[in-house]
Amino acid sequence: MASVVSIEPHRLAFSHNRLGTSNLHPIGGGKGSLGFVSDFSSIRRAQSKLEKCNVLVWKDCRFLGSQLKFKLGGEKTRNLASPVVNVTSASATHEAVLEDVPHISDWLPDLATYPNPLNHHPAFESVKHYFVDPDHLVARNVVVKHSSPGDGVHFRRAGPREKVYFRPEEVRSCIVTCGGLCPGLNTVIREIVCGLWHQYGVREIIGIEGGYRGFYSRNTISLNPKVVNDIHKRGGTILGTSRGGYETSKIVSSIEDRGINQVYIIGGDGTQKGAAVIYEEVKRRGLKVAVAGIPKTIDNDIAVIDRSFGFDTAVEEAQRAINAAHTEAESVENGIGLVKLMGRYSGYIAMHATLASRDVDCCLIPEVPFYLEGEGGLYEFVEKRLRENGHIVLVVAEGAGQELLAECMDTLDAHDASGNRLLHDVGMWLSQQLKDHFVRTKKQVVNLKYIDPTYMIRAIPSNAADNVYCTLLAQSAIHGAMAGYTGFTVGPVNGRHAYIPIARVTENQNRVNIADRMWARLLSSTGQPYFMKHEQAMKAKSNDEAAEIMKNLGSNLADVTVNSRAFQNGNGLAWKQPEVAACSGLEEDRGAQ
Question: What is the pLDDT of residue 89?
């Protein structure tokens, strides 16, 4: 008969068969056993308690750098990234991995817990099963193989817990926004304030002005539901924002001096990396401070989560620019409408706006290198569409074609204060290249209209869909912080909100998968070139350039030989032996080439 041992459910839970078969089963059914810890001390504490319960414990459990290495008796050694532990038996066929988030009890193990104030909240009394069970997880991959349905990475499901680690009257929280503007920033701020105030009864909420540097160089503003009542109707952020200004020691010292114990950080991947460092410093100092990240990027390039807030609004607003470009292009002879959209490294906005519009003839994104000249190039396609339709609409993401611009412009690889690489203006460059091509080769003028709506899109309020989404993100972050989780970011994974380790969402960027069906749908809709011959075209271009150089070199060598002989014969001079040998060598080189 199997017995279940639970030791601080948020830290460790698994079952063991007392018959000695070492057949482990996860709580919730299925094969395999799921256990998780946050650090080496947690493993030792759990191991000690389990030994007292006379159940199976780890053999040879130790840390190797960032890897946790352990083995069960008689089982092969397994390696998994900390803080994840995956326990399976030799007879188990499926494996499930929980990528858990840190908890403040990891370094403050004796913290008291309190009943969740939502237990007595009138709005939630009629809701059954409102609290999230500690064992509830969210699968990273919703599509699995029939032979291994339990495999893959899982995250802890977001939502309120029955027990909280903060008394509402003790909470002093702060909110900071960093990086560029994005639709929905004010909505997230509003919902964090209203959620803390109305759901948990928190009364001390402050806003940090001007991004990270505001922790130590700017004043704070007191926030309450009245202050933030209608800010969701405005674009931008009422707290202000900035890039850079990150000094960990000053920031955490400011948090400690102000008595702040909950920090809500809204920003992109660079901002979230900063949040991870703040969490590490808080942990090192042993502070009871929960650090929660809300991912913000209009480009939708945050990994793991389904989408980032502001993305829907950006795609919707991009339609206005595309519609304007289409109207301009079709109203004149040889009309070209060119729209540049956001997308430094990922072309999601350009791709989705193109699919939604159906007026776009060609979409250029960073993930697909394109070329201008030759068979299958952009020039050839533009000429074809102008002959067929009399006009063409092009959409280009700001990060597309940077390798082509780098060849034309002798500039340094500069970065902004957030560490992002500064991009060349592909929109202006492509506009000029198209105009020059038609004047040079076709002896005709095209009517090109270039539209860059970047800052118009960034500064608008979020639409209805993003407003609802921002509410869910904000409330999920609040529930996580009150439950004692820290060093996490929140977001939907396959439609279910989850707590995700910050390092997981910053380790790489979410980019368009050009082998996916969505990109195939776009190619089918636009009929644009695949640009699959990019490497061949670049190689051919290099060969042509090399041939031209060799031709010029051969011509120059011939001129040197002829002039040398003319000079020798005309003046009757006796050439020195080294000089004659040099001319002879030049002639031999030319013949060999």
Answer: 32
Question: Which 8-state DSSP code applies to residue 195?
Answer: I
The token pair that represents 274 in the structure block: 């900063």
Task: State the DSSP H helix or E strand holding residue 59, giving kind and residue range, or none if neither.
Answer: strand 59-64
108-116: long-range contacts at Cβ-Cβ below 8 A with a sequence spacing of 24 or more? 108/286, 108/288, 109/45, 111/165, 111/288, 111/484, 112/165, 113/163, 113/164, 113/165, 114/163, 114/164, 114/165, 114/166, 114/167, 115/162, 115/163, 115/164, 116/160, 116/161, 116/162, 116/163, 116/164, 116/482
Tokens 């939907």 belong to which residue? Answer: 492
Assigned token pair, 342: 């956001």
Q: Is 210 within 8 Å of 218 (Cβ atoms)?
A: yes
Contact 177, 185 (CB under 8 A): yes
CA end-to-end span of the chain, whole Å? 85
Residues 4-29, mean pLDDT to the nearest whole number = 32
The residues facing 21 across adjacent strands are: none
pLDDT digits (tens, 9 = 90+) for 58-111: 333 333 333 333 333 333 333 333 344 343 333 344 567 889 999 999 999 999
pLDDT (0 to 100) of residue 424: 86
Nearest in space to 88 (alpha carbons), one of 99, 80, 100, 96:
96
Output the six-digit token pair for 396. Answer: 């280009």
* Secondary structure class of 246 (helix, strand, coil): coil
Q: On the CB side of 421, how many CA atoms lie within 13 Å of its CA?
A: 13
CA-wise closest residue to 534 among 368, 366, 327: 368
Tell me: the pLDDT tens digits for 296-306?
999 999 999 99
Whether residue 83 has a cis bond before it, omega within 30° of 0: yes
What separation in angstroms does the CA of 456 have from each of 328, 329, 363, 452, 591?
19, 21, 20, 9, 62
Q: What is the pLDDT of residue 71?
A: 33
- Which residues are bridge partners to 87 per DSSP? 33
C-alpha span between 343 and 456 (Å, rounded): 15
Helices (H), ranges, 331-443: 348-357, 378-389, 402-408, 426-437
Q: Position of tokens 């009257």?
A: 169
Contact residues for 290 (Cβ-Cβ < 8 A; gap 6+): 104, 165, 166, 261, 262, 263, 480, 481, 482, 484, 485, 486
In three-state form (DSSP H/G/I as H, E/B as E, the rest C), the secondary structure along 478-546 is HHHHHCCECCEEEEEECCEEEEEEHHHHHCCECCCCCCCHHHHHHHHHHCCCCCCCHHHHHHHHHHHHH
Residues with a known catalytic role: 299
Q: How far apart are CA 282 and CA 286, in angstroms?
A: 6
**Nearest to 489, CA basis, from 298, 263, 287:** 263
DSSP letter assigned to residue 304: S
How many Å apart are CA 92 and CA 96, to the nearest integer?
Answer: 11
Averaged pLDDT, 577-592 = 44
186-226 per-position pLDDT tens digit: 999 999 999 999 999 999 999 999 999 999 987 899 999 99
